[in-house]
Amino acid sequence: MITGKNYIGNIHSSLGENVLKAYNPTDGSIFSEEFSVATSEEVNAAIEKADEAFSVYKTISYEQRATFLEAIADEIMELGDALLERASGESGLPNGRFQGERGRTCNQLKMFAAVLRDGSWLNVNIDTAIPDRAPIPKQDLRKMNIPIGPVAVFGASNFPLAFSTAGGDTASALAAGNPVIVKGHEAHLGTNEMVTQAILKAAEKTGMPDGVFSMVNGGIPVAQQVVSHPKVKAVGFTGSLGGGRAIFDLANQRPEPIPVYAEMGSTNPCFLMADKLASDPTGLGANFANSVALGVGQFCTSPGLLIGVKSDALDQFVDTLGKTLAEASAATMLNEKIAKSYYEHRGALIEQIGVVSIGESDNPGESKGKPLTAKVDGSTFLANTKLHQEIFGPFTLVVECNSADQMVEVAKSLEGQLTGTLVADESDIIANPEVANALSEKVGRILFNGVPTGVEVCHSMQHGGPYPASTDAKTTSVGTAAIDRFVRPISYQSWPDSLLPAPLKNGNPLGIWRVVNGESTKEAI
Amino acid sequence: MITGKNYIGNIHSSLGENVLKAYNPTDGSIFSEEFSVATSEEVNAAIEKADEAFSVYKTISYEQRATFLEAIADEIMELGDALLERASGESGLPNGRFQGERGRTCNQLKMFAAVLRDGSWLNVNIDTAIPDRAPIPKQDLRKMNIPIGPVAVFGASNFPLAFSTAGGDTASALAAGNPVIVKGHEAHLGTNEMVTQAILKAAEKTGMPDGVFSMVNGGIPVAQQVVSHPKVKAVGFTGSLGGGRAIFDLANQRPEPIPVYAEMGSTNPCFLMADKLASDPTGLGANFANSVALGVGQFCTSPGLLIGVKSDALDQFVDTLGKTLAEASAATMLNEKIAKSYYEHRGALIEQIGVVSIGESDNPGESKGKPLTAKVDGSTFLANTKLHQEIFGPFTLVVECNSADQMVEVAKSLEGQLTGTLVADESDIIANPEVANALSEKVGRILFNGVPTGVEVCHSMQHGGPYPASTDAKTTSVGTAAIDRFVRPISYQSWPDSLLPAPLKNGNPLGIWRVVNGESTKEAI
Questions:
Q1: Residues of A in contact with B409 (CB under 8 A)
Q2: DSSP character for B481?
Q3: Does the model's ipTM exceed the 0.90 cut?
Q4: Which of A20, A449, B309, B468 lies in the 20 to 30 Å Cα band around A251?
């Protein structure tokens, strides 16, 4: 079933001599298949094909596009347990985790099918003509969103299904009417090919044009070629700050710059407010330990900073947090490189002056991540931005402030974040409104209690935040609004009704919500 | 009244030794005032003050912000004829033109006041909790737009009122809740200071925080400092491709990149379709001559490319166009530099092989722009991208295609455009749908007949387009949607109603349109 080929639309291709191999982090073994690194010609062919497919795909009805997305979900389910096993084998994450992640992936595809039928994503705005307006007549103007062209997608290692080949970026780009070129993630090459086959089967069954989806394997040179190609019109990326920024820079240096939607993680600061903390320090300590250790800390929303004011309650919280994490066993991380990076960055942080490690946590080897927490006082944290960086893995840093005012200073000192959490009673927010106020300027999502891990896929989700959490704080990579990244508005001026696209016609044949002369309505004009 | 100072919020400042002088392009005279070039300290002070003002300004009610915008309009009117005279004196544009432009400027400010009261710009989306959902409860999530922080605005020389100091960028950034720092345009220094005074008077009268608006004078170094400052969070720019791209590059190379919304003009291609052209070639020729010569061709929507298929009707069209333009008298351009650039670029284009100038048009000197048209065949146009560039001024190039198919090729060969026009009967679009289809991929606004000059300020306007027309094709610099550039969404998760911002509260106290669990409504929850 796994061929190791590149998929230039429906053509399976392996022209190059270089190959990649898939790796099993749990036992260090290498999978047998050889994955062909795409040649420059193959990459160009995939993009040219996407560009040709665009002229057809953009004209396909929203209903047909929705059917295509649903068919992808069906074909992914058709892959059965083999997909879960391969994903587990390539990522070190347990098989059961992929039951859930597969469900999320399929639900995302179905959600965008529903978005297509709902029509709100078209953002239709109509201002009708006023021919007798003085001094000049008002023209009829009608605006709607349209697709932008081929989109390149770079998936994440920590979500081999939900944020990769058929993940949120691919689903939203396809929903918007754009062909997609995926560069297969090197950390789950087999999973990627299996999902690629599912997408192409769905495309064939639902009559989509050849080239609506392509997949090429390779490393940085392939990524650079894809991002630099003049016919690629946007990029979706989930991964590290280094990788995201490199792609962002390359895309902006093109003769025609293109948008890069990179979600690059964050430290997800949690502010432990006095009243709430005092009410249950040990319970909160245990809760946060679980959130830190969840998925071996390999979530972009993993709580990496816990900020409180020096107090007995904070001591109890830290004590429970430290003990619970110390008792947690080491678990296999996504790959050797990530495990190595975890211990290196964690070690470098703990070596900073004033940082005290809570308990012991050696590197057990075999790509296993062992949880750990450490503590530092607020003044030291404020003075050393090395302590503000994300450590990808099951580590969290407790910042012990000398006052509520210092918590505000800490909030103000932070870089952009995907999330920020107030662990608080209402009385805490009323007593110290400036913490929440300062935090709201830094984050895409602000929680009142709970833990930041767990990102609901819905209309109201904002998964993105000021740089370096993402490269475009106005957009989200999770939820229905993710489709907005891959469209642009166009205004039709003074067109006859018969020639207008369906969403703009007087009769509102699609029956969608539209803003007509400033008022939301589903009525015809 | 004109002091030549920089305005660091309410402080008038002239610490530097360098000065700029204002210039009258009509008679070449120099205005008497000396405008102080802001020092590095003054620029920093303005931005620091904006950052401090932000913490207050963002908390001010939408109603109060609306009152501020309306007060700016009132104060601009209070400047009376002196403003119109100064703007005319500094730009060479007739006084009467500024009656209209002032009205547009004030209407834009009032429109954004209405936008603030309407509340749709907040884009409120609420998904209520489902506590008993299996396997995990659904959290309450509520999303709304919030301001982003200090915005830098660089105005345009061709609209000293409507796209400058208190123009669309400033109005939309202030409406969104962001302080604004304007770098005064060197081509209308006095007009800029007068409008600055109006804005600051309005701020004082309506109780806005000091620093909500600042204005600094200077050249490229001042611009670079403003764009590079870490506390500036976005840039609005209207002007040339060279200037816009330089600012875009600088902003993207920052440690924390920021969005640049640059509107950089275009050639605004108009496709003369066979049936329509044959019905009235001379009338159309006269119409387009007027559009080309309007405002001495100094509009970003001036029709710079006219594309038709070789025919008697096209010959008649070109004949009328050429004659009408030849009869139009030369008029003063915005400044010496623009006039010089017009003749240089026009000359370089006409010297290209295969380009035939229609009629004579010498440079009369005195910064006066004389209209002209020229002709080239489709194959030559397709082979030479130098012919695709915008010539800022009253010039248009007629492209004579050998077939309807070649028109499609021309449409496909174009760069991104603000507008594209089909001069067509319905029968033309039905006979040759590919022209409109190809054109729609290149433009922000697509017209069915009419001329592209004249940009309606309304909900459905898209004034922006694929690069190089703008740096962000998803946004517009004209119309209510311009406010979207200066906000970002934030999601509130599981917050108690009492602590939520007003737009998100269950009771909908602002009475605005919201999407609740996927349905548009003004109802309370």
A1: none
A2: G
A3: yes
A4: A20
